[in-house]
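Assemble and predict.
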Amino acid sequence: MSAGTILQFVLDILSLGSLYALMALGLVIVYGILKLVNFAYGELIMVAGYTLYLLNASPFPWLVMALAAILMAIAIGLMTEFVAFKPVRSKSVTAVLITSFAFSTLLQNAALLFISPRARNVPLPDIFTQSVEILDVVIPIRNLITIACALLMLGAFSFVMKRTVLGLALRAAASQFTMARMVGIPANMIISLAFAISGLFAGVVAILWLGRIGSVVPGIGLEPLLVAFIATVIGGMRSLLGAVVGGYLLALIDVSFNYGLSQQLLHFRDAFTFTIVILILLFRPSGLIKGRETGLRT
Amino acid sequence: MLEKQNLRSLCLLILPVIVLVVLVEIMDIRLYSRIATTLLINLILVLGLQIFMGNSGILSFAHIGFMGVGAYTTAVLTMPAQMKSMALPDLYAVLKVVEINPILGIIAGGVLATVLAAVISYPLMRLSDAAAVITSFAVLVIMHTVMVHWSAVTNGPRTLFGIVNATDLKTSAIAAAIAIAMAIWFKESRIGVLLRATRDDEVAASAIGANISHLRWKAFMLSALYAGIGGGLWAHFITSFSPNAFYLRETFVILGMLVIGGAATVSGAVFGTFAVTIAFEGLRTFENAINAANIITRPVVGLTEIVLACAMIGVLILKPGGIIDTREIGELPIWDRLFAKKPG
C-alpha cells in the first residue's frame, strides 16, 4: 500500500468519525441526564436541512443561512423537550420513548405535507465541492472541514464541561440528579440546556452531513439516528468520552467494511454493524467505556 | 384458569368482531369489506405486541420485522410454480417446486417467525430499559436490511407480486377471535401473571422466584407467532408488497393503536385498533376529498400520520397507560352491580 492510500484511509476514517462522534455526542448529552433516548434526534437534522433549503432564495450570505439552520435545530430541540419529554418524563420510560417516536413521525410527516416527499437541494458554498491533492490522492475539502469542525466543537464542549459552572451543573445532574437538585441546581433549566446543546450538535452535523449528500428528504434523519445509536452503544451510553470514541470506532468499522467487503456483502453492512451492537450490548451492557454509576432517573 | 370475569371480557371483546363481520356482510360494499379485513389483521398484530409489551412493560420495535418474516415465508411457500419463475427468478431450486395450501403457509410463516424470535431474542431478554429498546430497534433494522437485499427470496427492494389471494373477511375474523382468546388466556396464565409481576416490580418478582428473562422470552415468542400469522394473513390479502411495508411506518401505526387503547389490557388493544382504524379511514377519505377537489395544487400526504402522532402524544400526556389502562372490560364494577341485582 502506498503512503497515499494510507493517508486516504486515515482521512476517511477521521472525517466520517468526526461526523459520527458529533452525532453521538448530541444524543448522549440528553441520555446522560434523563436516561432516556430521544428518537426525534434525527429530525433535528432534517429541520436544519429544510431551513437551509427554505432560505435558498434569501439574499443572506451562506454563513448566515447555516447559522439560522443551526438555531432552528436548537429551537426544535427545545420544542422536543417541551412537547414530548416534559409532560411525561416523570410517568414512565416507555411513555417517553413512544412520545419521542411519535414526535419524530410528526415532524417527518409535517415535512412531507408542507414541503414535499421528494429530495430538495440545499445551497452549499463552492468549497464543499472542491478538493485538494495530497500525495497523489484527491481529498475533498469538505472532509478536512468536517475534521476541523469536530475538533473545534469537541474542544469547546470539553472546555465548557470541565471549566465552567454550566458544565459543572450538567455533570452534577448527569451523575446524581436528585442530589444536584438538592444543592440548588435548577433541574428544568439544566434539562432544557441539555436539549439545546443536543440541538446545536444536530445543527452542525446537519450542515456537514448535507455538505456530503447535497439534498434533504423527509427521511434524512434515520441514518444519523442509527449511527448515533450504534456509536453510543459501542462507546458507552453513560460517558461523553465513550460517545466520541464510539463514533470514531464505528467509522473505522464502516470504512474498513467499505474497503474490505465485496460488493455483494456490502449491501448487508447495516446488518453487520447492528449485529456488532447487539453483541456488545450482550457482553458489555454498558459499552466499552464505562461511565460512573448514576443515580435513578427522575 | 379463566375466571368468570375473564370469560365475560372474552365474550365482550369478540362481540365487536362479530358485529363488524355481520354489518359488513349485510352492507356488501367491497371497500368496507377491505377496510374490515385490514382492521382484523391489524388487530392480530396489535394483540401480538400487547402480549409482549403489555405484560412485560418493555417497548419492542422488532415486532413488525416478524410480520415481514411471516409474510415472505407464506408468499414463497404458496406461490404457484409458474408464477415463481416470473416473480422470483433467482429462487433456490428446492423452494421452486414447493407449493402448499395458504392456510399451511400462514401457519408455517407463524412458526418460522416464532423460531427466529426464539433464537434472536433469547440473549436479548436480559436487557431492560433503553438498552432493550435500542436492541429491538437494531433487530428491526437488521431484518429490514436482510429483506431489502436478499433478492433470491424477497425480490429485493422491489415489489413482490403474484401471491395467492386467500384471506377473506371470515378467515381473518376467525383468526382475530382466536387471537383475542389466546391473548386473554396468556394474560391470566401462570406465565402471564408472573410476567406482569416483573413488570410492576422487577426486584420483588425475582425475589419470589420469577425467572425474568425466561418469562419475557416466552412472551416474546408468542408475540412473534402473532406477528408471523398476522403477516401471513396480510400477504394473502394484499397479494403484492415490498419490504418497506414492514418498517417504521407500520411499526408506528401498530404501536399507536396499542398505546392509544392501552398497552396493559387486551381490551385496550381491541379498543385502540377499532378507534384508530375508524379515525384513519375518516381522515383518509378527507385527504382524498381534498386531493380530488384540487383545492391545493400538491397532493396532501402524511396528514393521517400527523393526527395519529398528535393523538398518541395527547393520550400519553393525559393518561400514560392508554384509554383502558388497568381493568379489562369484563372486570368493571358495573357488571357485579348488574348481576347482583338479579333476584335469587
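Residues 3-130+137-283 of chain A form a domain with the ABC transporter involved in vitamin B12 uptake, BtuC fold (CATH 1.10.3470).
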